[in-house]
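Hi L.,

You mentioned the student needs an example of a multi-chain input paired with its predicted structure. This one should do, with 512 residues in total across all chains.
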Amino acid sequence: MKTIRLAVPDWRRHLPGQHVDVRLTAEDGYQAQRSYSIASPPEEDNIALTVERLEDGEVSSYLTGELRKGDRIELRGPLGGYFTWTVEQGGPLALVAGGSGIVPLMAMLRHRAAQASRIPTRLLCSWRTADDVIYRDELARLAARGDGLVVTHTLTRSEPTGWRGYTRRIDREMLVEVLAGPDARPLAYICGPTPMVESTATLLVSLGHAPERILTERFGPTGGGS
Amino acid sequence: MITRGFKNIRPRGDPSRVPPGQYLTQDFPVLSAGPTPRTSLDAWSFALRDVDGNKLASWSWKEFLALPSSTVTVDIHCVTKWSKLDTPWKGVTIDALLEAAGLDAPAPYVMAFCDGGYTTNLPLEDLLDGRGMVAYEYDGAPIEPEHGGPARLFVPHLYFWKSAKWVRGLAFMEENEPGFWETRGYHLRGDPWKEERYSGD
Amino acid sequence: MMGEDVSRLDGNAAAGVLQEIFAVEMTTASCKCEGCGRVSPLGALNLYGGAMGTVLRCPRCETLMLCITSGPKGHYIELRGIVRV
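Structure written out for the whole complex:
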């Protein structure tokens, strides 16, 4: 995973959760296009994209490997008003991320911190191994502010010695233990690989959360780019 | 705007085999107009219907597999610009189907209909003389659901959207009525060598 | 349910195409399925079609709700059900 920062002339301030479409054009006219969630909050002047380098990813390989300072790339955005959150919308918040699904939620958390908000927020992140965790230190710092944010990680494939967190896929029990219950009427944002997003949304509905307060963004099978 | 340093790794390939505007791929991209149906083989059947919708012939999965089969290794071309060379398929040719049903050419056109509601139209002529089959094996194994299994129409000389996935039959038509993508802007015939991608091409 | 499609995306991924065609933000549009009556935000609809086109279907019953294809001569736009923008 690599974070790249882009200065976009005449950038229209985005909402946390929105994304951009990046389009690359080769000399022979061949084009490739992918969507990337904006990782930075609207309070920052430049935008940050956190890109996961996929094995056969022609766009992600370029962005994480070839792109150099001073280069120009084509992008379109900000896009997507549905999967967005600003402090004006209130909470409490129930955020669930699978892998790179953390990126749009990170923009929301950074915005929340920039606004010095104390809206109660529970973040649950699912990763395969400890090596896959991103933003680990920043999340720990944000949680340590004592402003109502609690961060919980679960590792689904293997865990390092001494790990005291969850070690399994997100399930009903975990959601009950980690997130605010339906009586608190949290706004839930779920983002990541399609199967994880769909099963988590279904579980939340079965727990009694109102479907219209559950927002989802599916990233496809691998959970990265699109 | 050319992106500095971005290289197209997909070759255009040999122009005698790769139609204009296409790029070669080693993988096998999956693209659908809807969710993947999961029809059990017990429930599966293939039917030929006349212009009024009446069943002319039908086969259960067992009966279908008992029909004479053919194997071909051919190139395939998707309208989204990827081409894949030397792909091996096994299935029942439309010629064999018509023969088994005792039919000649009931009408000049067909609409392939599929689980999930997908349809595509073709001149019957494009399916005869070995040019079309109902395929049930790819590369020596049953076709996976995401690639159209248990059976898909296979018409490699046309753009691959004509090789309808999850096919359940052919309905004969007097007119060349447009199917799913043809109704929504794609070419009625789809010959990759003439780059017939969109209607009006 | 038609079975798990692990690569399925949703209306969020169509935001770029929709932005080009409609002047207004569309992923927040409220869409009522003409098949089952379910009301969903467009961003939550099931997305299919890949590079061939944008096909959005009801997340409950998979009825087609929106289809956009784009060729050299223009766009084909199909909107079904009731949409409130």
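You could point out the following to them. The CA atoms of residues 11 and 34 of chain C lie 18 Å apart. Strands of chain C lie at 9-10, 30-32, 39-41, 46-48, 54-57, 64-71, 74-79, 82-84.

Best wishes,
N.
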